[in-house]
Amino acid sequence: MVFVGGAIGSMLRYLVHEITVANYEFPTSEFIALGIVNLLGSYFLGVTARHPLFDSEGRKAFFGTGFAGGFTTMSALTLFIDIDGLSPDIALLLFAGPIVFGIGWHQGRRAAKRKAAHD
To answer: How much is the pTM?
Structure first.
């Protein structure tokens, strides 16, 4: 299941990249695509960590490890740092990623508490 989720996440990441390349010039397009996939992926991974829809190990493996892992790209972020150094834009992404994950985690936790209160 991890493989299938990762393949879908990777294809979606490629689609985001192609859309940004078609609308923005390099290197702006790369940075926008990188921000979109890493911030959305961090949020989604936070949600999968706590939301009751992802309680089973199979769903966590497919959506968390597979899909979110394939959708996000830490390697591209490190490549940007290697080429341009730690610019303020990249530092902002590094700082924002865990914050966005935390937002998703808390939303998932709230959903889990609501579900527990109704059960």
So the answer is: 0.84
